[in-house]
Amino acid sequence: MDIQPHDTEPRWKRKAYSVIFESDTPAGRAFDIALLVAIVLSVLAVMLESVHSIDAQYGYYLRIIEWGFTTLFALEYIARLVVVRRPLTYALSLLGIIDFLAIVPTLATLVLSGSRYLLVIRTLRLLRVFRIFKLGQFVGEGEFIVTALKASRFKILVFLTAVFTLIIVVGTLMYVVEGGQNGFTSIPKSVYWAVVTVTTVGYGDISPVTVLGQALASVLMIMGYAIIAVPTGIVSAQMAAPRPTAAPAPLYKQVICHVCQAGDHRPDAEYCWRCGEKL
Amino acid sequence: MDIQPHDTEPRWKRKAYSVIFESDTPAGRAFDIALLVAIVLSVLAVMLESVHSIDAQYGYYLRIIEWGFTTLFALEYIARLVVVRRPLTYALSLLGIIDFLAIVPTLATLVLSGSRYLLVIRTLRLLRVFRIFKLGQFVGEGEFIVTALKASRFKILVFLTAVFTLIIVVGTLMYVVEGGQNGFTSIPKSVYWAVVTVTTVGYGDISPVTVLGQALASVLMIMGYAIIAVPTGIVSAQMAAPRPTAAPAPLYKQVICHVCQAGDHRPDAEYCWRCGEKL
Amino acid sequence: MDIQPHDTEPRWKRKAYSVIFESDTPAGRAFDIALLVAIVLSVLAVMLESVHSIDAQYGYYLRIIEWGFTTLFALEYIARLVVVRRPLTYALSLLGIIDFLAIVPTLATLVLSGSRYLLVIRTLRLLRVFRIFKLGQFVGEGEFIVTALKASRFKILVFLTAVFTLIIVVGTLMYVVEGGQNGFTSIPKSVYWAVVTVTTVGYGDISPVTVLGQALASVLMIMGYAIIAVPTGIVSAQMAAPRPTAAPAPLYKQVICHVCQAGDHRPDAEYCWRCGEKL
Amino acid sequence: MDIQPHDTEPRWKRKAYSVIFESDTPAGRAFDIALLVAIVLSVLAVMLESVHSIDAQYGYYLRIIEWGFTTLFALEYIARLVVVRRPLTYALSLLGIIDFLAIVPTLATLVLSGSRYLLVIRTLRLLRVFRIFKLGQFVGEGEFIVTALKASRFKILVFLTAVFTLIIVVGTLMYVVEGGQNGFTSIPKSVYWAVVTVTTVGYGDISPVTVLGQALASVLMIMGYAIIAVPTGIVSAQMAAPRPTAAPAPLYKQVICHVCQAGDHRPDAEYCWRCGEKL
């Protein structure tokens, strides 16, 4: 994202950019942390507002806080647009869209009445929490996890395909075995039950009642138990693998014999190993 | 499975074989992916059909789609029989049987009335999804997982025997402790409860009520908690183990120059690297 | 357990001992497998007998089977007593006691009426399944797991102490927070709930209702989630650790200079490295 | 914590300090174990007291036991204050505060009526159990776990941030999807449900009922299933990592005999091992 102001731009703009977008100066770090706190508090306000008893009593204050944060985020969004070199590039980037969406829901309540569905968008602000990982020692650690997961992605995909197939086959089987009774009223419901079981969540809202169903469920559970070892093994092995180190010194001299064209000489060789010619 | 057409067979047959059975040509890959999409869609149709409200409204269209896919799979099955060298060998192979079963259930509804049990067979089509692993980068990854699991199979068997013994002993114990009450109405039911507990699924459809029962259940849970470390450890250790590589070629020739006493020559060196003397 | 017959004992006795107690001859292996099958079938009979509907219909036959197995196990027990050198040593060993207990419950039904509690003892027969691990390739694998667990036992003990402390402190806290309501009627019940939660079993027979209780429970769950990584990590690391290999060839010559008493010479040294004397 | 008595202090004080605070003498170990047993028994008494039926019958004796233990712990606390060099430093240390809190609750019941909240403090006595880890072989093991967790703390923090964001976003989404019905009555409740689900606890006190909700929940469960691999992988990799060892001394002297050109002499060799010449 090439939005950093050029060196030819005014000093205040470059300064503001480093504070708002970067975090390697004390001011930039302070800005990021303040923003983080504001995000967490604003999400907390949204959560509290959804509790009827709290909303009934403190709804008025929560709405004031809500508007305060929205103003704050709007100012921040405008500041970001001002300091970047290419505002449109920023506005259309993922972080830019999230930053924009953070101010939309509250404004929307002015126009729309049923803004309940906008609640979700408000919590998307939380995604900006990941900005914190630009700070200090987190960079390497976050990268380490992401790298390990990326390196394992094909293995995990193969594994998930196998699990999905198992889940759908067993889910259908249970639908037949339990005869569409006891909560297994359709194949999707039975598949939902299979997911709940294989992942060992086990709500118990649907559970087998027939003897055959319980036997089949037991087999599925034992399999789910063994299966969980696979993704864990994949990620563990990936993380325990030695990180690729700097390339070792070349084993051979980067020179070719001018007589016989032989290569791969010892690094300290003075004569060609094939024809004995001085290198 | 030696079903590949001989080089003496007509060109169109060999070409068709490579498209239908293999996936290392663009056409073969396209065929595999198209088949995969058809399988997933057909299973989706089966699943939707089992939902009463959807079946009541769209049942007619779903049945049309169902017949469409059945025709498609029938044509594909016939095509497979035609292009292979030994149709019977293919027809009796595991994949051949699954391919055949994919068209049976819909046809069977013409004859039989209660075809509910055939639903399961239809979802077995999903097993053909594993054909996708013949594609590109999945081969190695799938093999890696299967190899690790195979190498661990005796360890996992020993582990499962221990778990089964624990489950049956504790299940019987709970039957006695809870006195055949609170859902523990027979030993098989108690064993079912023990499986649900050890695997940490915990539906809660059966749960201990007496103090002694709850104490015993707590011990079982803590044990199940520790036990889950074992299969994970086995698979992790197996996957983290360095893959056995071919023994490396000796790095140096076991000879010393008779003039300058230099050693460590290339394995195929004919002249000394230090003084150029014939070795 | 020094119960093996001396070489001076009659041949038939030594032969019988090797068949009954060992499994490195074909006859011994066949005996072990037959015994295994008998044990599993007898436990199955006990389990089926506990199901009311099956007992009502087939109880008569199950009781006959029961007596058949008991006679079989009694004969086996007598045979074991006869062939060993020190019958008392065997009878008082763990396996000897289990073998004896395998025949007690059925006999006890002749005398006692309420033999329900003896059911548990019957399933203890299952512990003899572990004899199978003396067979073939299982020996090494079983030992591998046991060794890894033994090597980790102190780490696991430290870990379990921490978990128990957490469970009891949080259990008490929940008893106070939920005010003895909602199933948290006593500290032991709350502790039982904490075990159910930390192990991620989650029956749901007791679950927090107050806001504070649910918040506290959430913290406990996240902790339990992180905590499960610890025993798995311990066992994985233990299993992934390179097994101690055979001692490498000695680095030094096992000779001491007769002049200066220096040791640790190169394996091919002909002269002392300290004083230059011929070795 | 520099509270150990100086060598100039009376002998009995130094002796008492080593018994009470240390555990490398037989007396010190015996004291620690006795204390451990007293702590466990006292917590057990607190737990039993909270069971109504037991309290009704044995409450009188439990209260006597309670006072007995309180007296014991009070004496121990006074003894600790007497033998240390700086009583205030000890009293304000974490262990000192826990030791003090162990005696407060029982005394408080003399003054206060509703001492229910003091129950929690009583069980904090259990934290003193960790003193046991000063004993023998536990020191290293406990340190090993703590070191591995400490080394992984940033990775785990990054991981937990991601999990929390996921939980809050999905929780809010479910509140909207389930329309504030079926137990998802507020965002905090929905977030609580998301925690219960991601950690695979799955009480089932709240569970999705709408089709969309169950689909979303299935996705969350599969994610939670894959996610649990991450902390386990982190800790496993950390524990499996080779502990940094001191660099090994060079195996051979970097010198070649000027007579016979032999190399690979011992690092401290003065004479050639092949020809006996002074190096």
UniProtKB/TrEMBL annotation, chains A, B, C, D:
It is a multi-pass membrane protein. InterPro entries: Ion_trans_dom (IPR005821), VG_K_chnl (IPR028325), Volt_channel_dom_sf (IPR027359). GO terms for cellular component: voltage-gated potassium channel complex. GO terms for biological process: action potential. Residues 29-237 form the Ion transport domain. Keywords: Ion channel, Ion transport, Membrane, Potassium, Potassium channel, Potassium transport, Transmembrane, Transmembrane helix, Transport, Voltage-gated channel. Gene3D superfamilies: 1.10.287.70, Voltage-gated potassium channels. Chain C. The chain crosses the membrane at residues 30-48, 60-78, 90-112, 156-177, 215-235. It comes from the Bacteria. Pfam families: Ion_trans. It is found in: Membrane. One of its GO terms (molecular function) is voltage-gated potassium channel activity. PANTHER family: POTASSIUM VOLTAGE-GATED CHANNEL PROTEIN SHAB, VOLTAGE-GATED POTASSIUM CHANNEL. This is Ion transporter. It comes from Hymenobacter crusticola.
